[in-house]
UniProtKB/TrEMBL annotation:
Protein name in UniProt: 30S ribosomal protein S1
UniProtKB keywords: Repeat, Ribonucleoprotein, Ribosomal protein, RNA-binding
Record domain S1 motif: where: 25-91, 109-175, 196-264, 281-351, 368-438, 455-523
Keyword Electron transport recorded: no
Tagged with keyword Cytoplasm: no
The family this protein is said to belong to: Belongs to the bacterial ribosomal protein bS1 family.
Entry GO MF terms: mRNA binding; structural constituent of ribosome
InterPro entries recorded: NA-bd_OB-fold, Ribos_protein_bS1-like, Ribosomal_bS1, Ribosomal_protein_S1-like, S1_domain
GO terms under biological process: translation
SUPFAM superfamilies per record: Nucleic acid-binding proteins
Length: 558
């Protein structure tokens, strides 16, 4: 009996030794038999028990969920430790299980569920039901996330971008999921929209060139030029973030899913009435909105702007920047010069609302009027004199002096000198005023020789004796009689026979208005007298001698 018992015991022992004991490093099933001191005691069979920290049964951000009697899978790290217990881990079992599941999901390009539970350099850590993955900062959301606090611990879907089991690396993306659902949402919203539709939207973002408006899951761009008919310098003048606005769908690009929006299209176009309200030649008040190198933009009413070209700004300021004539926001009177409805352009004139200063000058200063002004500029061909009305008149070299050459006379003037002159001509079309300084006090030469003609006999006074002849004066005008003209008798052609102050009768041989000189001759007078005497007292065939004739003529004179 005893032998039999020993045999039975041996058989049982062999049987138990032959039973498959689990391999270390594998996942085994176990049963929770007790919970004590923050640990779960688990029977993994084969007469083996082990302990697992309760926190290993907790999901991120949740309390541990385990109770006595629960069947759980654990990872057998070692069959026995120093205390004779199995070394087991719930976390490692979950990780192995998770990796199997995640590899399958990665192969199928399927989404996986997880929760963000920690922050690391460059991103976050995500628990994918036992396996820890890295979520780069750029993959958290479609737009940069400033505060990821509200996302922590939330169960949500992720897309696996990369995984390497050997290294234990998994990289996931939340952004890919959002973009996909956003694309679906966009396609759904865009499918319902038609060009020309009026819709309500919320202003999400404002930039220099426009605003992004959320139309319920899809954004549209409202360009600054489509916000109002008037000029808008910055979208923030009209809109603020979070504001609800009514917009019209202008264009939908089916390929890029881009939507262009407009606000002004829902308002009346002021250009429809421009032709009626602003007839050509009419004058209106406007406000300067913008100044450029080529002119100034003037707003006639919200949405209707015209350009005053630099050439139409001032009668007198020709090469001046428009900013020197007008300033932004200034109210000005302008005249409508041209309207181009197709190009939505109005050409305006500023100078046309004031009188042409050359016209005004011509009315108030007829030819011959004396004027006074400052020498503004001196050029090689004359002086420019500043006149009233902010205009200039020009004195040509030839109009500076009667007696001096223009080149010499101009040396007497300096910039800033105040001078008198006479208006000689006003050309309104060419915007030119001709002045004369020499004409002040009239033309002495013309006055002096007014009644004198060629052949006239005049009395002159000798003012100087020279070798080549004598200088004489007639009515204040100087002339020179050459030696050969002093007498018809060669012996009498001596200047020294005259004295300064002598009065002499001479014949006028030439009147030169250009050089302002009289040609005078005593010889010509004597020849003319002789001819006259011959005609009066005898003829060449009468036999009378020249002496007789002259004697008779002299007697007759006496």
């Amino acid at each position: 009996m005893a032998n039999a018992t020993m045999e039975e015991f041996e058989a049982l022992l062999n049987e138990s030794l032959e039973m498959d004991t689990p391999d270390e490093g594998s996942v085994v099933k176990g049963k929770v038999i007790a919970i004590e001191a923050g640990q779960a005691i688990i029977d993994v069979g084969y007469k083996m028990e082990g302990r697992v920290e309760l926190k290993e049964f907790a999901e991120p951000g949740e309390a541990p969920s385990v109770a006595v009697g629960d069947e759980v899978e654990v990872y057998l790290r070692a069959a026995e430790n120093a205390r004779g217990e199995a070394v087991i881990s719930r976390e490692m079992a979950r990780r192995e299980e998770a990796w199997d599941r995640l590899e399958k999901a990665y192969a199928d390009d399927a989404r996986v569920e997880g929760a963000i539970f920690g922050r690391v350099k460059g991103g976050f850590t995500v628990d994918l039901g036992g396996a820890v993955a890295f979520l780069p900062g750029s993959q958290v959301d479609v737009r940069p996330v400033r505060d990821a606090g509200p996302l922590m611990g939330l169960k949500q879907p992720f897309q696996i971008l990369k995984m390497d089991r050997r290294r234990g690396n998994i990289v996931v993306s939340r952004r890919a999921i959002l973009e996909e659902s956003r694309a679906e949402q966009r396609a759904e919203v865009i499918g319902k929209l038609q060009e020309g539709d009026s819709v309500d939207g919320v202003v999400k973002n404002i930039t220099e060139y426009g605003a992004f408006v959320d139309l319920g899951g899809v954004d549209g761009l409202l360009h600054v030029t489509d916000m109002a008919w008037r000029r808008v310098n910055h979208p923030s003048e009209i809109l603020s973030i979070g504001e609800t606005v009514k917009v019209q769908v202008i264009k939908i690009n089916k390929d890029t899913h881009r939507i262009s929006l407009g606000m002004k299209q829902l308002q009346e176009d002021p250009w429809d009435l421009v032709g009626v309200k602003y007839p050509l030649g009419s004058v209106h008040k406007g406000r300067v909105t913008n100044i450029t190198d080529y002119g100034a933009f003037v707003e006639l009413e919200p949405g209707v702007e015209g350009l005053v070209h630099v050439s139409e700004m001032s009668w007198t300021k020709k090469n001046v920047h428009p900013g020197k004539i007008v300033s932004t926001s200034q109210e000005v009177d302008v005249m409508v010069l041209e309207i181009d409805g197709a190009k939505r352009r109005v050409s305006l004139g500023l100078k046309q609302t004031q009188r042409n200063p050359w016209e005004v000058f011509a009315e108030t200063h007829p030819e011959g009027t004396e004027v006074e002004g400052e020498v503004k500029n001196i050029t090689e061909f004359g002086l420019f004199i500043g006149l009233e009305g902010d205009i200039d008149g020009m004195v040509h070299l030839s109009d500076l002096s009667w007696d001096e050459r223009g080149e010499d006379a101009i040396q007497n003037y300096r910039k800033g000198d105040v001078v008198q002159a006479v208006v000689s001509e006003v050309d309104i079309e060419k915007e030119r005023i001709s002045l004369s300084i020499k004409a002040l006090g009239g033309d002495k030469f013309a006055d002096a020789v007014g009644g004198v003609k060629r052949g006239s006999i005049v009395t002159v006074e000798v003012t100087a004796i020279e070798d080549g002849g004598i200088e004489v004066e007639y009515e204040g005008m100087k002339s020179f009689i050459r030696r050969s003209d002093l007498s018809r008798d060669r012996a009498e052609q001596r200047p020294e026979r005259f004295n300064t102050g002598d009065k002499v009768d001479v014949r006028v041989t030439n009147i030169d208005s250009k050089t302002r000189r009289l040609g005078l001759s005593i010889k010509a007078r004597e020849i003319a007298e002789e001819k006259e005497a011959v005609e009066q007292y005898g003829s060449s065939d009468s036999g009378a001698s020249l002496g007789d004739i002259l004697g008779a003529a002299l007697k007759g004179d006496n």
